[in-house]
Amino acid sequence: MDRRRMTAIGVLVAAAGLTAAVTLPSFAGEEPRRAAPAADGVAPEVLDALGRDLSLTRDQAVRRLKTERRAAGTVTRLRTELGAGYGGSWLGDDGATLNVAVTDAAGAARVEAAGAVPKRVQRGVAELDAVKTRLDAAGADASPDIAGWYVDVASNSVVVVARPGAEAAGRRFAAAGGTAGPVRVRTADEAPRPLFDVRGGDAFLINDAGRCSVGFSVVGGFVTAGHCGRPGDRTTGSNRVAQGTFAASSFPGDDWAVVETNGDWTPQGVVNDFNGGTVPVNGSTEAPVGASICRSGSTTGTRCGVVQAKNATVNYPEGTVTGLTRTDVCAEPGDSGGAWLSGDQAQGVTSGGSGDCTRGGVTFFQPVNEILQRNNLTLVTAGGQPAPAEPPAGGDQTAPPASTPPAPPAAGTECTGQVSRTGRIAAGRAQVQPDGRFFRVAGGAQQACVVAPDGVRVGLELQRFTGGTFRTVARADNADGMATLTADTPAGAYRYRIVGLAGAGEYTVAFSAR
């Protein structure tokens, strides 16, 4: 999917059954703190942060969050109904008035019928996205005096942000992209940069050097910012306990990364409130422009503000990143990768920004739904379980059900099954199959086998996702070159873990997946 088109000016709402979670893993041996009771469905820590940063009473914060949730649902329906005539949506300064841009009178009538305020505009989101796409293509030649560019729904234009005195450079950049018509240049003293390498509270270290903040818990690990590390980089918690390895990373262009954690760390479906407790997260419905939003990071704790724009491009010194969401929330180095929340809904991970939490600033985040979809990840819910709905396309690695489960092979015979994978293992190492992910079964008998050459001993573990992590429910070691495993299991999410016991070499694992 094209993220530059996906997030432009509307909201992306997950299916009703999907749930999500934001977390900082608890340290090995430490009992995770439980979230404080929610008030009117919203954690009190979120209400306190909104009161501090948006000058709202607790009742006002609760009403605003309820209004924003209703607005998200309304925009989802209208965007579908309006089609090409949809020009974007945003909440007014009061946080209660939903404005919807339309290109024709018929669309305005639909908006009024839905209880929102129609705004007639010249361009729909498709045209604005096309304009920004042309700017993205010209971004490699952008002057360092250009901080970035984004789609601005309220003005029905694309905004190029130039530093004071560089307005001419901004106009030249807009012209170079052939987009002078709907593009306007504004000046701001912004110098976005990735935020890392500062000591703080809940955090993780990269190669025992740089520091970032954990974002969202996923099955087997967590997501964070791409500029925090590269595949193969190792992470430790702030307690210096080995934590995991970067499995995937993208920066610049995007700003996301995936860290696979080891068995000493348990992903929890909560976010640290930096006030002695945790906040549960119960979904990943994307908030509209104008909605309140809060960020949690290991340097400055929890900070709140509003969503200013989506589909923003930021021109970092390291390169251009597109598809970010722009906010007026402050952040500082070390907050990178941390969690963004709208009420109890997960939104994204901190990318970078300009300013600080003393004088204020602008901060951008990478939307979380894109990270999950691009990497076929499953989030952990506040209850410690994976999302009950189907994961993003391609998330599960499953095979078509067979009419009957295959019989386990006898020792010394070929290892076959519905799903087969090969890999290379060495003593002291472990791999997860299929392909580092998981599969779902409806319950019943599961059968598997693994074969390895002479001199190579491996263990085969069947693991079920329960209590917020994968736990081993059956195990077998290879003898005479083969290990076979049979287990009667309930419905759920499972994976196989191949553990190197002695020697090194290639192996083949095959299993049923019904």
Strand-helix topology:
Blueprint (H helix, E strand, L loop, with lengths): L2 H4 L37 H11 L3 H25 L3 E6 L6 E5 L2 H9 L3 E4 L4 H13 L8 E7 L4 E6 L4 H10 L6 E5 L5 E2 L9 E3 L3 E3 L3 E3 L2 E4 L9 E4 L4 E9 L5 E6 L8 E3 L5 E3 L11 E6 L3 E16 L2 E9 L11 E4 L2 E12 L3 E8 H8 L43 E8 L3 E4 L5 E3 L2 E8 L5 E10 L2 E9 L4 E8 L2 E11 L1 E8 L3
Parallel strand pairs: 2-3, 5-6
Antiparallel strand pairs: 1-2, 4-5, 4-18, 7-21, 8-9, 8-12, 10-11, 11-14, 12-13, 13-14, 15-16, 17-18, 17-20, 18-19, 19-22, 20-21, 21-22, 23-31, 24-30, 25-30, 26-29, 26-31, 27-28, 27-30
- Uncertain regions spanning at least 5 consecutive residues: 1-38, 196-201, 384-413
Molecular shape: elongated
Number of strands: 31
Sheet with the most strands, sense and barrel status: 7 strands, antiparallel
- Helix and strand composition category: alpha+beta
Largest sheet, order of strands side by side? 9-8-12-13-14-11-10
On the 0 to 100 scale, the average pLDDT is 78
What's the helix count?
7
Give the N-terminus to C-terminus distance in angstroms: 29 Å
Radius of gyration: 24 Å
Helix residue percentage: 10-25%
Sheet-strand content, in percent, reads 35-45%
